[in-house]
Amino acid sequence: MSGIGKGITTSSIAKILQARGYAVTALKIDPYINVDAGTMNPVEHGEVFVTKDGMECDQDIGNYERFLNQDLYGYNYMTTGAVYLSVITKERNLEFDGKCVEVVPHVPEEVIRRIEFAGHKTKADFVLIEIGGTVGEYQNLLFLEAGRMMRLKYPGDVLFVMVSYFPVPSMIGEMKTKPTQYAVRSLNTAGIQPDIIIARSSMPLDKPRKKKVSIFCNMQEQDIISAPDTSCIYEIPLTFEKDKLSDRLLKKFNIKKPRRAKNGMDEWKQALCVAQRVTRPIRIGIVGKYFGTGAFLLSDAYISVIEALKNAAWAEKRAPELVWLNAETYEEHPDALEELSQFDGIVIPGGFGARGVEGKVAVVEFCRKNNMPYLGLCYGLQMAVIEFARHVCRMADANTTEVDPETKYPVIDVMPEQEENIKEKNLGGSMRLGSYACKLKNGTRAADAYGHVRVNERHRHRYEVNDVYRERLERKGLVVSGINPERGLVEIIELPDHPFFVATQFHPELQSRFLDPHPLFLAFIRAAIKKSSA
């Protein structure tokens, strides 16, 4: 089922194979008709992750990057929409030589072609493919069919791992295996027998349950891998290795002389040890609007920001306490801003649209006036510029044209090349996407954080700081500490006489890794620690 841990399972298996000395890549398949993830609702689907080459994709690509500590690309992601679009385009271009184009085999063949391309492009020893959705859903049947056909095409080189939930109903107090038995039979109807079952549950799988699943699912007990809940996702590769998962996989692939990496998981274990042992807290408030889903709180819309904050906090030997703050609350109840004083730092992440904007501007003003460490990301930079223009530069009606097209002071305006896209409603995959250069100004906090003056960061936006107002903003003390050298676009702003007030037009969280936290997040956490110790 959704959210049970397929993405982290894929990341963890990739990690343990990488630790054995193999080259690994991973692909995510989303069963949506959307051509990419850029048009998906973040509350329903989670964060839109952007690759170096500008693909808007599922948040699991971010998990793969953080676990493998390597960049992935657009060819590591596909959706039903993208696959169908490719097949239809080929048909229109007469690439099927007059054949009648059918759902099967032509759609699964396109899926297989994309998987093969990713494997060849990355020169990977192992390609891990995560199929989104749930066994038995109509939506992912074509991808299961592609998997079945791949096993026929590459006998001995394709294995199936099934992630299944083992509930422990509180009124019974016993782990139940029937849902997994039924799920395996549903998978069997697609012509697939799982080689490995990852047993997700609130607690470890015991021997009686393993034996039962083994009998009813036609599997050996050692191929049923326990995956209990854990407080830290980076522990999961080590949990899998307790059941010798990498050995089982290599044996099933008939690899008789497995490789051994020189250091394996040593660095990973050291970082995990720090993460699990730190106790001194650092409290960070995240001000957003993509949290609520009915009666529940969903943090997946900001998953890369969350992981970047955690990784930086652990690197500084602090236990991160992250609190969700609804921007709309500060619009309706301005007095609520006082609660921000209890935090050591505030983050405003990316976003779109008018909802919650005035609340975010109020938060920025509070941080600026009260010396609260502040990190703004994408929309967080735009809110900071609007606040500074209104309250320091005395442009009372300053705004972004995204929210108020008639504003007297459009300090944030649409990028020129985006005007036509908006006019023609060419909105999917048309933003400023992917990695672009940023030149840093010597002596600034940003340059000090990075340690050098030229970096590349990933973007996802249509609006930018309006250059017409840049000189006026700078004259009043706003420092533009990073620009895009090709076009002169504002990339980073900061306030020099503030403990930490930095905002970026790009998304630094997309390049932060468990073993390599992003320098701007490290600088922010250090400032927050300094405040907490004051």
Automatic annotation (TrEMBL):
* UniProt keywords, alphabetically: ATP-binding, Glutamine amidotransferase, Ligase, Magnesium, Metal-binding, Nucleotide-binding, Pyrimidine biosynthesis
Per the record, the pathway is: Pyrimidine metabolism; CTP biosynthesis via de novo pathway; CTP from UDP: step 2/2
Respond yes or no to whether keyword Protein transport is given for this record: no
Molecular function GO terms recorded: ATP binding; CTP synthase activity; identical protein binding; metal ion binding
Q: Which domain of life is it from?
A: Bacteria
Query: Record's InterPro entries?
Result: Class_I_gatase-like, CTP_synthase, CTP_synthase_N, GATASE, GATase1_CTP_Synthase, P-loop_NTPase
Q: Could you tell me which residue ranges the CTP synthase N-terminal domain spans? A: 1-255
Give me any GO biological process, just one: 'de novo' CTP biosynthetic process
Chain ranges of the Glutamine amidotransferase domain? 298-526
- What is the E.C. number? 6.3.4.2
- Catalysed reaction(s)? UTP + L-glutamine + ATP + H2O = CTP + L-glutamate + ADP + phosphate + 2 H(+)
Please report a single Pfam family linked to this protein.
Answer: CTP_synth_N
Task: Return the NCBIfam families for the record.
Answer: PRK05380.1, PyrG
Q: Which PANTHER family match?
A: CTP SYNTHASE, CTP SYNTHASE-RELATED
As for family, the record states: Belongs to the CTP synthase family.
Q: What is the official name of this protein in its record?
A: CTP synthase
